[in-house]
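Continuing the batch. This is chain 6 of the set; chains 1 through 5 are on the previous pages. Same settings as before, nothing changed between runs. Recording input and output for traceability.
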Amino acid sequence: MNDLLAARSQMGMSLAFHIIFAVVGIGMPLLMVMAERRWLATGDEVYLELAKRWSKGTAIMFAVGAVSGTVLSFELGLLWPGFMEFAGPIFGMPFSLEGFAFFVEAIFLGVYLYGWERLSGRAHLWAGIIVALSGALSGIFVVIANAWMNTPTGFTMTDGKAVGIDPITAIFNPAALTQTIHMILAAYAATGFAVAGIHAYLLLKKPMNTFHRHALTVALLVGGPAALLQPLSGDRSAKMVAVHQPAKLAAMEGHFRTESAAPLIIGGIPDADAGRTRYAIRIPYLLSVLAHGDPQAEVTGLDRVPRDEWPNVLLVHLSFQLMVGLGTFMMAITAWAAWLAWRGRQLAEHRGFLRGVALAAPMGFLAVEAGWMVTELGRQPWIIQGVMRTADAVTPMPGLIVPFTLFTLLYCALAVAVVWLMYRQIAKSPSAEDWQRIYTPVLRDA
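Output for chain 6:
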């Protein structure tokens, strides 16, 4: 394994694990806040139990995410010093703001966890809201840094060096808004559907379990709207990519030939040597509409990109198709839920629907992973689009296969531990004895 491949594999593996922890860390606080709000509004103690359990899940994911994020920080410095030397002064501000949001989240998470009997209902709810907002902001600032890598701004190049650095312009780069919205919606959709899917599966075994019924409702209220909004966000992202990263769009779509009235390619297997995508379904004009809002617009193909600047077309295209397919299924489940609710049906009593939700449980996370592969692999061979190649940013460091293997095993063990803890604290419904032991109804001042 050469140095570049080893460094990319190490970073890719770390990111693949960390992004799941980060996504759940963004979504779980919203779930716990919604559950507590419903408890304050209805007095139903099931919602109180949900809020407490989901707060424990938030704490678990916060701790694990902090550790895995620290590992990534070290890897950036050790494996990619050329990149950090160049980019640090430009996009260091989003990372500093991310650190501030992280500490705010940590403080108010502590207040939330230990303030159940010490704060009024309203004050405690607001502590949870701050946790949810700061968690989302933490993710937003990290994504802004990644967006800058896709559309670098805030500097000028003189003799191979960045001068005239403007960190504010770097923060508000062309990809920042679309990419952050897309990522936050993905976090809510993935977390909401994962939680809903777990409780849907358990409801198939215990259809009358009130705990799982309430959890299913709250989780779908988080994941469903996010899944419906995601295509709108994706449309804006695609239009941005068409302008600023035409090679990435061409790889996403398996689009080899520049043409007007370009068709949308669904499925298929790209053949880079032959310059075509085989076995695909083509919808006339639709790619031109989606990319530029005009059915006759010209869409740049890979034929206008130097061959040594092509991303891995096969992996990017298949990842993009997987992301879209999984997102479409989650949208369909949301529409099904809305239709059943409109007809006055109980979602928890429709076994076909519960099976669909259970099937969708991992789909949000798979879509997130596929989406990040599109984002990162689609930018190659550039680590900073059009400015710095990935090969120029890596540390020549032999023997990376050893830490790669060790970290992979460590992350796998950590993932098993997290799944076990999350099941114990969140998914497992309380028994009748637990209710009697845990609850003596106490009214708090609103």
